[in-house]
Amino acid sequence: MDGYRSLQLRADCPFDVTHTVACGQAPRWEQIGDWWYGVVGDSVIKTRQTGDQVCFSGCSEKFFENYFSWDYNLLGFYDAFAGDQYLSQAIRENHGLRIIHQDPWECVCFQLSINKARVVPGVDSFTRISRKLGDKIELDGRTFYTFPDAGTIVERGLPALKSCNLGYKAENIFLAAKKVVDNPLWAQEVAHMDVEDARSLLTEFKGVKPLVAEWILLFAFGRYELFPVDSHIRDIIRRLYLSHVHFGRAPYAKMDKFIQEYASNHFGEYSGYVLEYLFASRHSL
Questions:
Q1: In this structure, what DSSP letter does residue 268 have?
Q2: Are 273 and 266 in contact (CB under 8 A)?
Q3: Of 34, 56, 110, 218, which one is least surrounded by beta carbons within 10 A?
């Protein structure tokens, strides 16, 4: 196709673009006709898949493969849980789903701007910020907006963020922007830390609680051994794997710690992928 790059999937690199972008893990992906459009960084990636052929525009092959984590050994994950009835079903239903490698700054702001880890495209606070403070991109008769970098947010000031109808989250995002401007190497620092230190650094951002820090580490830094427990994941694991455990009136914090220890022991280095696949099949399991 003229103007598009094309990649042929290898047998050892399963990938499904729809399963990957439709599960809500990353903001600003939407399907228009046969194509998926996603605002990533300062461009719009347009892609579709036919069998083992992937066509795309808006980025280089290297960027595309890195963004969609093609270097991750997905078959190793599949093989590790071939005997697990729930994960086997989830893998069949979501074959080729990969965890997207999100931009750290955007991931922090995405998590700060929402009430839960996943959102409906086009109606969330993150999108409102992009439309107000981002750069406009015209493509195929449609208008898209990039997410502003930290310097732009600091320059435009807190009132501009407040005009996006964010409530108290406007101040959290503005303070995060100031923190990033003051330390532009923060993401590189996090990438080279162990999990405890990385979680601690991220919680220095106002509004980033330990759970939010773990979502950021999973989605932006590839810490697949993490298993952040929210209400959806709590219900899934209790129903499928821990139905024999009586929690009584235990507070959620105690329950979630138990679930994370269970995940660490039973899912190990694949915990993040287990989480994504179980969530994607939550309505059929």
A1: G
A2: no
A3: 34
Q: What pLDDT is recorded for position 250?
A: 87
Name the burial class of residue 157, with classes exposed (0-12), middle (13-18) and buried (19+) by CB atoms within 10 angstroms of its CB: exposed
Query: How many residues would you count in the chain?
Result: 285
Amino acid identity, residue 43?
S
C-alpha span between 263 and 276 (Å, rounded): 13
Residue 36, both tokens: 């998926």
Report d(CA 131, CA 238) in Å as an integer.
40
> What percent of the chain has a predicted confidence (pLDDT) above 70?
96
Alpha helical stretches, state H, 68-124 = 74-80, 85-93, 104-113
What order do you get walking across the sheet with 53-57 strand by strand? 5-8, 53-57, 43-50, 35-40, 29-32
pLDDT digits (tens, 9 = 90+) for 192-214: 999 999 999 999 999 999 999 99
**pLDDT beneath 70: ranges in the chain:** 1-2, 115-123
Tokens of 62: 């290297």
pLDDT at residue 84, as a whole number: 97
Q: What is the pTM of this model?
A: 0.94
Nearest to 190 by CA among 209, 218, 170: 218
3-class state of residue 144 by DSSP: strand
Residue 7: beta bridge partners? 54
- Give me the domains of the chain, ranges plus CATH numbers: 1-71 (3.30.310.40), 102-221 (1.10.340.30), 231-280 (no CATH)
Residue type, 250: A
Cα–Cα distance measured from residue 180 to residue 149, given in angstroms and rounded to the nearest whole number: 9
CA distance 89 to 162: 44
